[in-house]
Amino acid sequence: MGYEIFISYRRDDSFDITDRIYGDLRKVYGEKRVFRDLHSIKGGDNFEKVIKAALQSCSVMLVIIGDKWVTIENEKGQRLFQDGDVVRYEVEEGLRLGKKVIPVLVNDAAMPKKEQLPLSIQQLEFVRKHALEIRNGKDYARDMHDLVTAIGRPRNYLAMFVACLLCLAVILGFINQLVLDQLPGSIAPTGIIDGRVVVSMVQLANWQPQERVDEYGAEKYLVEMVKVPSGCFYMGSDSGGAIDEQPATVQCVGEFWMDRYEVTNEQFQKVMPDKRLPNIEFTEPFQPVNSILWDDAVAFCGQRGGRLPEEAEWEWAARGAFSREYPWGNSFDETNAAAYAVFFSTSNGGSQTSAVMDNNRNPLRPLGASWLGIYDMAGNVQEWTQGIYPQTDSVRRRVAKGGSFIATTDYLRAAARNPYPEVGETSPTIGFRCVQDT
Asked: Which helix (H) or strand (E) covers residue 203, if one does?
């Protein structure tokens, strides 16, 4: 079986977001159907032969174009105009073989003009109208839907059959009853095709991100919330994680609202002014409240008309239908770690939490946004959920998710679980966020 999708990119131009796109496409099309040089070429392989064979077998070529794709240079000058440039060779071959070429613009890049390109790849001008943009943050899920739609369905008869059933169900008005258990909400349940979780693309196309800002308390304060659509995903992990995450299982949740940011000290004090937190260590207004007992977190959310999230709800909001390793994707640039999360290897890591937003209510770690634009679901403080951890003694424990400012990267994974006693015990690393039913 050959590759279905060939990804061409420059590592120095778009490594992070290409890695995210690659990981998510593999979830939809299969791990062995998406070609990317870093993961698909083994040591000792003839690079040119492998590239040519992959291009010949693929049906679609994605050309990932970042803001430095055209201009990046080496000691010989502009790389794109050098005969030995690998990216140029890949694009030349894709065009020569008549493949379906889709330019994918990332990092706010614009489509190159004809005169900016070597003569051998100026045919890219003819596919300009097919160019798509992939943006990090809250628009990522919708942009990926557009990309998957442009690529087309996997070459799989069962997938095609199920897709036909989806279309038929749209016509009949039964979208919310497809494939798995019926759930309320603006995205239909995801389906299982060849053991992979696949989003119902028809309804995802109609989904618009929904946000709201609520005002609470006698001393007014604002809380931003994001609507989390219903859906299904693989919760936990089959390998690479702790034993308490295994095995990965399909979980389905209904829609709900979730706080965009972790609950801050300022918010907690305005809702529960008489509540003292004797063990609190980090007290700046916009730092996440910490050293919070589970019962106090429950009480706070209840006073706002909400509750703590179920563990599956929290993990769905963090991972989405592609079941990502981290809220933002499957990897990250550790040299720029502070732009993603506050954890052990970043500047604040190991010593204290960080504010969740600036004075203008803008996020401080924009690259760390989940697929819905929710922040700090990895690092800063781990967050209480309603999840009950399997008991090994008489103590009832609840699951905290997301890792903290002292966590290593393994605990930043959205599948990671950390049990704490429900009564009488907390830590400076524990905070929370609230959800509300729709």
From this structure: helix 201-206
CB 5 within 8 A of CB 25: yes
Q: What sign does the CA torsion over 165, 166, 169, 171 have? A: negative
**Mean pLDDT of the chain, nearest integer:** 81
Asked whether the beta carbons of 34 and 88 are under 8 A apart, the reply is no
Give Rg (Cα) of the chain: 23
Bond from prior residue into 419 cis (ω within 30 degrees of 0): no
Alpha-helix runs per DSSP H in 311-406: 311-319
Query: Residue 420: helix, strand or coil by DSSP?
Result: strand
Domains 5-134 and 211-437 share a fold: no
CATH fold of 211-437 reads paralog of FGE (formylglycine-generating enzyme) (3.90.1580)
Most confident of 2-6, 60-64, 327-331: 60-64
Q: pLDDT per residue over 175-217, tens digit each?
A: 333 333 333 333 333 444 334 344 444 344 445 667 788 777 6
User: CA 412, CA 374: separation in Å to the nearest integer?
Assistant: 15
CA distance 372 to 354: 21
In this predicted structure, the answer to whether residue 271 has a pLDDT above a threshold of 70 is yes
- Assigned superfamily of 5-134: Toll/interleukin-1 receptor homology (TIR) domain (3.40.50.10140)
Domain ranges for the chain:
5-134, 211-437
Query: Own/partner pairs for 177-182, CB < 8 Å, 24+ apart?
Result: 180/232, 180/250, 180/252, 181/252
The mean pLDDT of 219-246, rounded to a whole number, is 83
Cα distance between residue 105 and residue 90, in whole Å: 17
pLDDT tens per residue across span 120-145: 999 888 788 889 999 887 677 778 87
pLDDT at 103: 94
- Contact between 34 and 7 (Cβ < 8 Å): yes
Structure tokens at 348: 């604040």
Ranges of beta strands (E only) in 75-219 are: 77-78, 100-105, 132-133, 191-193, 196-198, 211-216
Residue showing tokens 């990267």: 409
pLDDT band at 153 (very low <50, low <70, confident <90, very high): low
User: DSSP string covering 92-118, please?
Assistant: HHHHHTT-EEEEEE-TT--PPPGGGS-
Please tell me the predicted confidence (pLDDT) of residue 208: 60
User: CA–CA separation, 18 vs 41, rounded Å?
Assistant: 16
Q: What is the model's pLDDT at position 41?
A: 60
